[in-house]
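look at this fold:
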Amino acid sequence: MQKRIYFCKKIYLKDFVTGFLLVCTCLTSFGQSVDFTDTVFAKRLNSLNLNLELPYRDMIGDKIQELTHQKIQFAAKSLGIFLAERTYIDSAIRAAELPDELQYLPLSLSQIQMNTCAGFWQLPYIAAIRYGLEITGGIDDRLDIKKSTSAAIAYLRKLSEKYDNVWDIIIAYANSVPALEAAKIRTNHTKDIWVLYERGNLPNAAVIPNFITYTYLANFYQSHHIKPIAPEKNESNAPIIYPKPAAAAVQTAPMLSNHASKTANLSKKENKKKITYTIKNGDTLSKIAQKYGVSVVNIQKWNNLKNDRISIGQKLIIYP
């Protein structure tokens, strides 16, 4: 009888301990979900004490939740590349006497994909060429972090000569100066970045919420238990940025003259089927390039485009 009573007490004690641990687990889980609220996100951003104002909106919280849950692998990879180069980028920005906050710009551009081949800094084709980068069929210096950082810093310095406001520099970099100026006219020269985002008709307006979101993520990723994934390195111990740059072809024949080169290119075009594509809502050059298996650079050349801006109804010639 005593053994049975002892046995029953043992079972009850075990059930009690199990139940207690279950309640604690639930409370902990509940506490974690309550911790990550809009109020907490906003307070954390304000605690950074940046010279740049980061006005909070609910959509920032949604983006943070998305990156720390559904897209945690993407966030970990983006952070891995950023953190591997953060010291170098920060020192380059300070040497150029640019605002420290610009160190977060390449990270904030990682999800926009203005150009699928534009590398860590998502440098526009024209800006890359203007500041000394080489972009040919087999080489794209925008994929080299050191070279692209040098060109991006030069571009940012040029923008800083025109704009005192850091947000203007960020928006102009991602959208172009003409696009920012047009947005300002549409919004009666507002200084409210969310008005620019909503009514400015900016081609890459996403840079605004992205910059705020990724600035948060770069400083508080550990609170969300994100482990940055270190990037693969090449022989020079530099991170490899997807897509990997193609190896430069070994030249075994003499260079063609400009006239001969143009003639060769024309003959290649004539051998291919020509397609006339009409731009639709939501189209970008990178999307169109992926659809037809060609490069953005070639589309720009075939249509004499000076940049990657396109408009609805515009017709493009493509040689798939």
Summary: The mean pLDDT is 79. The radius of gyration is 26 Å.
